[in-house]
Fold each of these.
Amino acid sequence: MWGRQKEGSVVCPSCGNLVGVRDDECLSCGRRNPGLWGFAPLLARFGRGRLDDVFVKFVIAACAILYLASLAVNPAGIRMSGLNILGVGRVGLIMFGASGAEIVYGLNWWWTILSASWLHGSLIHILFNMYWVRMIAPAIIEFYGLGRMIVIYTAAGATGFLLTSTVGYYFSFPLGFMNGARGLTIGASASIFGLIGALLYYGRRAGATAVYQQARQWAIFLFAFGLIIPNVDNWGHLGGFIGGYMSSKWLDPLQPERLNHSVAALACLGLTAAAIGLSVVATLRALA
C-alpha cells in the first residue's frame, strides 16, 4: 500500500489524466516522468484524507519542541521580565535558525528565512501564534488542500523574513514600528499573515463574502495590534501577507489540487528541516 508502484496507471501530477506508471511522458500535457518513478500514488495519499488536524498538530508540536530546545541549549540566557516569560537567549535563537538583517546580510545565512517561522522567543509568543495557527490553518486546508496550504505557509514565512531583513539592513526610520528587523526576528506570525492573505484571496476569488470580510477583519486587527504593541515585526507581517496572497493567486484555490502541490509541499518541509539543520551546524562551528 505504501510502497512503490511498478505496474498499472497513475494520475498525471500536472493535468490529472491517467498515464502509465512507466511512461516517459504524459501524452496529454507533455510532462516528463509523470509516474514519478512509481511514487506518484504514495505522494497522492499525502494530500488526501483527514490530515488537516494532523498537520496543525505537527506545526504546534514542532514549534514547541524547537522552543524547548532553544531554551535548553542556553539556560543562562533565559529571561523572566514583564511579558517576556521564559524568554529565549540569543544563542538558542541563532542556533535553530533565527533570521534578521544581522543574520541574513551580516552572516549570509540566507536559509534562515525558512527556519525562523518555526521559532519563538517566549511562552506568550508561542501560545499566541499557535492559537492563530489552530484557528486559521484548517480553513486554508479546506479551501486549498493540504499541499497548497503548506506551500503558502512556507512561502509567506520566507517572503516575510526576507522583506523585514532587507528593510532592516538598508533603511532606517525615525519611528520604531516602521523599521525592519536589524537584529534577530522569529515567529510564525509571518506565515499566519500569509494564511490570512490566502483566506482573503479565496473570499475574493470565490465570491465568498463572509470569508472575505472575516479575513479582512483579522488582517486589520492584527496589523493594528502590531502598531500598538512594541517589538512586533510589522515588515515581517506585511511581507508574509503579500507572500500568502500572491502565492494563492498562483495556486488558484478554484482549481483542483494536483499531485504537484503535494510534491512541492514535501519539498518545502524538507528545505525547512535542512535550514534548521544548517543553522545548528553553522552555530556549533562558530562556537567551537
Amino acid sequence: MSGSRKYVFNPLTLSYEVKEDSKLTGLAKSLSFLAVTLVVTILILVIQVSLGFDLPKTAILRKKNAGLTSRVTLLNRQLEQHNKNLYALQVRDDGIYRSIFGMNAIPEEVRNAGFSGINRYSEYDGTLKDAAQKLDRLIKKTYIQSKSFDEVSLLSKRMEEMVMCIPAIPPMVPDKSKYHFSSPFGWRFHPIYHTQKMHTGVDLVMDEGTPLYATGDGVVHTVKSEATGYGRQIVIDHGFGYKTRYAHMQKVILEVGTPVKRGDCVGLSGNSGSSTGAHLHYEVLYKGNQVNPANYYDLSMTPEEYLTMIRSYKKEE
C-alpha cells in the first residue's frame, strides 16, 4: 500500500529522489495537526472566558437581545404617551361632552378594568410583559372611549328634542300682578312643622284655579291626591334625566302616560295637602335630585311674550 509521495534532494547523486510515506504516517501527522488545532482553540476559548469576553455566538445573541430590549423600551414609552393622550380625551368626555347632554361620567373602575386570567402574561417576562399589559389596557380604554363617543354622537343627534324637553319656561303666566314668591329653594323655617327643613322647590302664591303649564315636553309619570304632604300633584318625566313636580293643586287634568308638549295645561293651582294657602309648589328634579327651579326659567318676560311663545309651540305640533 503506497502512501503519500514527496521528492527529496540527494547530495550524493545530485538529483531529486522519490520518498514515499506510509498512509499511517500521514494519518498520524493529520491527527497531530488536528490535536494541536483543538488544543489551541480550547486555550483561546478559556482565555476569552477567563478575561470576561463573550463567546462569538453569545456575543451575537447579546447584541440582538440589546436591540430588542431597546425597541421594547421605546414601545413602552410610546404606549405611555398614547395613554396620556387617551386620558386627556377621557377628561374632556366626562367633563364636557357627557356633561352637556346630562350623561353620567364613566366610572374609573370601568375605564381602568383589566383583563381576566392570571396566566395571560405567563409567556412574557420583564419589559416585554410590562409592554403587553400596557397594550391590553390601552386597547380596553380605547374601546370604552369609542363606545362613549358613539353614545354622545347619538344623543347629539337628538339635541333638538332635548332642548324641548328641558323644563325651561315658568310653570304659569309670569304676570307679576297675579303671583309672588313665598319660599325660595333651600333651607327654611317650615311654616307648619316649625323647624328648619330643606325646601326642595319654590312656592308661588297665586289664586286658586290659576292655569299651570308644562315647562317642557315629556310624559305624565305620576298623578297623586293625598290629604297631607304634596296634596294633589302631578310629576312629568321629560327624559334626559329631568322631571318636574306640581304640588298642592286644585285639579289635575291629565292621566299617567299622557304625552305632554311644552305649554300644555296640566291643571289648576290649589290649596291641597299640607298647605297654609293657595299656591303652587314647583320642583325640578335632575337625575333624581331636586335642583333650584330658578335656574330653569326666565320670569322677566311679559305675559304677552309668554302666551305668544306657548301658542307658537302649539303651531309646531
